[in-house]
Amino acid sequence: MTELARRILAAFAESYPTSAHYTGGRKLRKAGWEEVFPGIVTDVAAKSDFLDAVDELVTAGILSARWKRFREGNDLEALYLEDPAALFEALGIPSPEAVARAMIAVLDGPAWSNPLLADLAGYLRPRLEAGHPVAVHDARELEHLARLFSLAPEEAAATPLRALSARLYGDSKRLERLLPVADRLARAMGTDVPSGRLGLARSYPEVGIALWGKIRFEGDAPPLECRGQILTLPLSSVRRIRSVEFAGSVLSIENKETFHVLASGSGQRRALPPATVAIVYTAGHPNDAVISLLRLCAATGARLYHYGDLDPDGILILQEIEKATGAVVTPWLMTAALHRRFARYGYALDRTQIARLSRVEAPAQGDLRGLADAIRETGIGVEQEVIDLDDPLLLPQQKPRRDGDSSGL
Questions:
Q1: Can you give the residue range of the structural domain that contains 63?
Q2: Where does 300-352 show beta strands of DSSP type E?
Q3: Judging by DSSP bridges, how do beta strands 241-245 and 329-331 pair with one another?
Q4: Cβ–Cβ contacts within 10 Å for residue 94, how many?
Q5: Residue 316 belongs to what H/E stretch?
Q6: pLDDT of 32-78, one tens digit each?
Q7: Is residue 117 part of a domain?
């Protein structure tokens, strides 16, 4: 079989498992071969090779061809799959029917004998028997999934993910490859996904903060005295905070470099909101640790500011913080004027990114709507890192930092 004929068959093999043909419906039809093999439009030799491959597959009885009227043998309208079994035999890969039979055999075997798997087996079996697609790819994957779905939460939590994978499968990365499949299967059933139920997502949210004040943790330990040091706290530590004590305002920052520049006091003009005594790093869209800490800050009555990218996601991140904390969040340096000033250093937004502007709500503070309009009109996003915070024309009211000034960040 020629390589071109194999490529034609591969296109059918990819579509067949999700086609009506697989479940007993009409024959699988594929047209538009000019898009798959664009050379056949302009290259006479390429077209001749393609037609020879079509003739080879039609002669073998695997496909049939429908030609354009009065152009038989020259201009192809569509190809139809006639013999699915021969298709997969020619490619040297198991057919979906054979894969389904092998998976049903796994369901009948010892790997799936655990009563805890009865509901999942009851979901899979009728679909496999009816020829409906399922999230599982093959029998080996199904056998491995049985062990994953049988895990107890305490067993899953007691071992690092790759060590657990090596114990279960003799492959340190197998579990990471299985988790998306297991989660899709659980969602299809309407049950809790294993990555969440077993704690296998292994997400460790953290938050960075530079604070002038005190952090009081649960228990009798003395408060943590903070004098502007940059601290990184995991969610487990944030949840143990009883209160954050300071007098002033809080600025959350979207991007890491800008956070470190401002939190470390680098630069002369220190473009910060009035009375800023805490700077929080959100790392893009805020995680649970960020939100928990900002809620604690908001509980003090402090005014919250946010400085992010001048793009759709930058605006939406501010809105996320506002909704999650229940506090008014004032935009800082997020204006249409600043966007215009730095747009030449920006990047082009695609249609999907621009469409996110439809989710921008009327802000309680600042001019986010004006910024959204400027972004929409120009199609340009401005990243936070390109804005020069020491530019004397940016914030002329800012004064140079005085040595020994400890009144805040």
A1: 3-91
A2: 304-307, 329-331, 347-348
A3: unpaired
A4: 15
A5: helix 312-325
A6: 999 989 988 888 999 999 999 999 999 999 999 999 877 776 789 99
A7: yes
